């Protein structure tokens, strides 16, 4: 048995907005086609050919970049700990299998961080919302390896993710 530990540095990106949590999440859910993404994982698993995958993704996204996969609400768990009302905290998992294919073609280990996740956090004083995520290029590249094709793919994803977050947090 061989064990390898590869250090890498992830970058956390945070966007702060004065928009209320409900507005940010409503915008995010619209941008990632939440309603059209119902059962998307099982639907993806049923496709048998690349053209079917492309068609499915395009049918759901309607020209947008991302699909909705799931969300994990953490507020209730935090409230149980202290027995008091806490600001809303939800992690959204969003992505696009077509982008994932291109990245994993160059780095199968990137699958560990695909699809991307967003932490959406209501500010404790109710004055707005924070949206945070790991910069895709910081967690999907191969540490210490110069792969221009992979770098181009993850940097393109960086841009798409940033554009999405800018859109849902814009005042």
From TrEMBL:
Residues 84-136 form the DUF302 domain. Coiled coil: none annotated. It comes from Cyclocybe aegerita. It comes from the Eukaryota. InterPro entries: DUF302, TT1751-like_sf. This is DUF302 domain-containing protein.
